[in-house]
Amino acid sequence: MVNFKEDEQLNTLNHSCAHLMAQAVKHLYPDAKFWVGPVVDTGFYYDMDLGGKALNEEDIAAIEKEMKKVAKTGVKIYRREISKDEALEMFKDDPYKMDLISNMEDGTITCYDQGDFTDLCRGPHVDNVKLCRNFKLIKHSGAYWKGDAENQVLERVYGVCFPTAEELEEHLKLLEEAKERDHRKIGKEMGLFMVDDLIGRGLPMFLPNGYTIWQELEDYIKGKERKLGYQHVMTPCVGTVDLYKTSGHWDHYKENMFPAMEVEGESFVLRPMNCPHHMRIFANKPHSYKDLPIRIAEIAHDFRFESSGTLKGIERGRHFCQNDSHIFVSPDQIKDEVKSVCDLIFSTYEDFGITDYRCVLSLRDPADTKKYHQDDEMWDTAEQALRETLNEIGIEYTEEIGEAAFYGPKLDVNVKPAIGNEITLSTCQLDFCLPAKFELTYIDSDGEKKTPVVLHRAILGSLDRFMAYILEETKGNLPTWLAPTQVKVLPVKTDDESLMAYCDKLITALEDADVRVAFDTRSEKLGYKMREAQMQKVPYMVVLGAKEAEEGVISFRLHGEQKTTTVGFDEFVDMIVTEIKTKKR
Q1: 30 phi/psi in degrees, rounded to 5
Q2: Per the CB 3.0–4.6 Å rule, which of 75, 88, 135, 300 could disulfide with 161?
Q3: What are the pLDDT digits (tens) for 161-178?
Q4: Residue 213 reports pLDDT greater than 70
Q5: What is the predicted pLDDT for the residue at 560?
Q6: Taking 80 as the threshold, does the pLDDT of residue 370 lie above it?
Q7: What total of structural domains would you count in the chain?
Q8: Is residue 536 annotated as a catalytic residue, yes or no?
Q9: Which ranges of 116-232 does DSSP label H, i.e. alpha helix?
Q10: Is residue 481 part of a domain?
Q11: In terms of domains, do 368 and 226 share one?
């Protein structure tokens, strides 16, 4: 989907359309006052004070109508330079503009005139309002002035604008597609998770159906890891402030952490990541070079204080569960272990049919002395080691400055979802820093103490984000092995004892084979129950009547299909079991 902020033409057009909207609002609400109207990745918005009025859909339609009316006039847009004093006089009745102007440096200020409307702005803008005619107001909400909950709530209206009607129409179709794929909508329809303000924003709770998917993902990745020699552990969700001071997170990551809790003279924090805990596990006993590599893994609960504006269902929350691991290696094992991690990443992607991804070597920005641990020699060694390793094992990648972790460079595998911007799912980070900070050692073949190197890696990333990604990719039409309910049995008549007995026989056979099956015995009409099963995206809908019971066969429909297939009883059970076992997509 297009990025309005990065596209120069669309940026200018959408900024101009924000002014067009403000002009229309001023016509409808003469006392309206305006804060800011920037271009963002998804279009534009404008924050406005309408004297306490909360806009509704009818109001939005009226604003659109007035915008079209103004656009038809084709009035030109003029840039004008004024002094700060002139600006203060011009906007003296608007406290929001006065606040903006008072924070500007002395000198020339620019404003733009379009007919009966003048707005403060740096620009640039298009030549006339007619060029803004292909627009659509997308949504509206309340927004605190300056993002401060202590301030007044303003009305924020979002919109998009394109050079042609065809481009606008195509974009609106994409938005509708995005709405249908949004994992929050799918999650609500399928009963997967919920968020409750009384619990806290950004703290999703998985409902039975959602937790079933979550457990399947956990079992899947832990099974693959066990075959590769990973040892799974469980560690607490809190740690002392001293732990994070030792690791360096307190200096480099504190703003993303929840505040410290004082208990009996000690300071604790909810952990934002798991590496310090795993470092202490390694330090729990002596190690020889013969022990390496040591692969510690955990499905770990982590907490980060994300700003409320960035929260998005289970894709981005303040609590999430990482598919995390820390691999302790000697320097000569780096190449083989990075290759093994990459093989695991790509075999996982193959299992899920993920093909649209790219690899990024994320490096530090040497000029950023605040974000990164300061040790030029360590950084040069780590970056070169990871770069050479990727080259040797034949991984194609691009390099990006300033995207490394604070303690070391990393390989990020970014996927392009069906909707929205590129996201990072998997990562493999090379760390010479934390092992030294925690004074980790092993006895090498020469009998000397050496410091191990650590690979931080996540394959699914967080299970929460991975689930959101899969839901949006599939529109909730999950493969049978991952679906919360795999088979739903619908009897044609619920008062037929022999038919109900046959249904029970099938359900028992499926349950004995560990198939997740639901039996709909409600007295609702069959058509209603079938439509409901389709809405719930159950992969197999079995409809049984007297004929099926008499002949000992099973009639079923696959989700999304109208065709009914009939097979033998045992054949159906074997088919479902095989499909689940092989994780057929």
Answers
A1: -55, -25
A2: 135
A3: 999 999 999 999 988 988
A4: yes
A5: 87
A6: no
A7: 3
A8: no
A9: 165-181, 183-190, 208-227
A10: no
A11: yes
